[in-house]
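Self-study notes.
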Amino acid sequence: MPRSSAAPATLLALALLAGGCVAGPDYQRPDAPTPSGFREQPPPGGNWKPAEPGDQAMRGRWWELFGDPQLDALEAKIAVSNQTLKAAAAQYFAALDQVRVARAAYFPTLGAGASATRLRLSENQPNTVRGATRFNYNLFVLQGQAQWEPDLWGQVRRTVEQARAQAQASAADLAGVTLSLQAELAADYFQLRGLDTQKQLLDTTLASDADELELAKVRFRGGVANAVDVAQAETQYRTVKAQGIDTGVARAQFEHAIATLVGVPPSAFSLPPNPAVVPLPAVPLAVPSALLERRPDVAAAERRVAAANAQIGVALAAYYPNLTLSGTVGLESGGLGTLFQIPSLLWSLGASAFETLFDAGRRHALTDQARDLYEAQVALYRQSVLTAFQDVEDNLAALRILTDEAEAQAAAVEAARQSLALSNKRYKGGVTTYLEVLTAQTIQLTNERTQADLATRRSLASVQLIKALGGGWSTNGSPSPSR
């Protein structure tokens, strides 16, 4: 081998041999506090249950557990029309693009160029040959260049590792935004339906109060009752009517919120009243350790820990020298006719190494910064795990307590109905005044509205429990950038 090419070839071989060195620590998932079980155990006949093997495969369309076709249709529109979700998707695609940017550093940079120049040399320059007659000439050049910086210390590999982890975190962020929007839509929908139930209840009560008012007027005209009875009956009637009208304010706001979530102007969207109560689903309750894979926010936090760990390797790689290999090959001639002849050939091969000897502690500070940011991400990850378990326990407790309260409230409603029936009989029999009937009516309406509100709160708690469990998302099904 000629000596002119031995040195670059030797450096290239050394670069390939050293390619296995990677600066910085290899990533290991940090430990996080994980309980062996949830404190709120599923009660017999409750609204959640231990997850079965088939439940672990639930993906995406978790709202179908409620069996409401209208809710299904609304949820399907979020993925198509919601602008917040589109923004999150664009950020995820940008993170994938960053992985491609980082991976490009594995390969050499190639370039090609051509030039044509007409030159005039000075006759008085120091190296001018006396007596020369040619000071004007053409120069045609066609050449290609290659430059490559071998990844001796793993800086590129750590950068790719970091970009990949960030892309996976962005994928989890996208899933988290999707889940939040889906849960928000479901919550708004059930609250709107709860107001429909309240309106139906008030309308039914209003019709009953209208009969009571007419009865009081008949009794007054017959001399059996006094004007006070009529006034009290009319007051009750007008009060219930006003309460029914008032429900329209909140209903309109929830309807507008749903329109915004599905990407429709509120003026062009409406939902017809539907007071039907949606039955609560049996929510699959996985083991606590599975929560770390099902929660998008927890997965995103863990991936950011991996990215911070890779950044330590990037910082450490800056302590080592950089090696750059370069080469040029081309054709150069003073005339186009001779440009493509062998004597016009030119080439060069070279290698250079550079090591920073003094930077006033900059690399040391950047390394310390990377380690500190890693510790910060570890703490955030562990906190996200604790918050995830808190969310599940909160909603399990809410469902259990609301179930007990709903049973007690049902008994209260039944007792209030019996009390009103007895008071009506006593009033019609002339045993008591209308004040007793009015009191019984108010108690019954209050209890029935509380019962309807409990049904809405239980639906909301079910939605929040599903969200706390990660919906239908899992890291096993999340997109992963290719290597």
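Second protein, same conventions, sequence then structure:
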Amino acid sequence: MVSTDWKSLHDTALLGQRVLVTGGAGFIGSHLVNALLQLGARVVVLDNLSAGNRANLPKRDDLEVVEGNVLDLPAIDHAMRGCNTVFHLAARVSVPQSVTDPKNYHDINGTGTVNVLEVARTVGVKRIVYSASSSAYGDGLELPKIETMAERPQSPYAAAKLVGELYVRAYAACYDVDAISLRYFNIFGPRQNPHSPYSGVIAAFSKAILEGNVPRITGDGSASRDFTYVDNAVHANLLAATHPGRLRGEVVNIAVGQRRTILDLAAAMLKEFGREDLRPVFAPARPGDVPHSLASLEKANRLIGYRPIVSFEDGLAATCAWYRSTLS
């Protein structure tokens, strides 16, 4: 299992600081909360628990959970008072669901981000770290994806997350708000929900294989992704939060910098679970999906010192072990 020593990586930079994590009971958010607590921060979580789970969070005196969402301005204000840093992760996250319910995705991911920024501006938060999405790059074929490329969102989810980036940049330009957007590439790991029809591919494959079913691949399996273990995203958030210089709404990729096809992923997982007797089945590609993703990490390294700390192989082994212990 992966066991990241956050103190050795980040020392005492966040010791005693009061910070807010929106969406902190969710998959990535809860991993970030646990790291922040290890580093001695006093953490407030704002989450409406529609996708997150209180069971993801420990019960501690230095952790406060505020139940509410990012459309609830009084709840945001209550949670954010006295915080130095805001990690904004709260979002709806499914590309296919956004295609059927675009307005809700705009409300939560677009308007909700404006609400977080506006309250942060009024209460004097020092820094905002926004969880953005590599879906902003869309279906362009050029690889790797570099932050200077034109955005080509192919789904309401991608468009709404990109709107959030633009507002982060605008607030950093117009107001005394220090901010950065982290464009995640296909984050996976323990606690990613395997039961939703909109589960990420690694969660969905894990559930199927452990139930003795064949993994179902949408498309022909040639699509490739820069699969990124969750601790890498947590590390990037912590680096961004503790960066000593001014952050002006920049966008940086957060990934591993390697890509694997969905067919290769399925083969690796079948081997990891000891079910190489199973063979994937194929279904039509989903609207809004992009063919390939691969991140350039040069800017993230130059700006905040980011390098991945967990490889795909180690992360996949840890994730499969977690699903095996949870679903078996």
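Instructor comment on the second fold: The chain has a mean pLDDT of 96.
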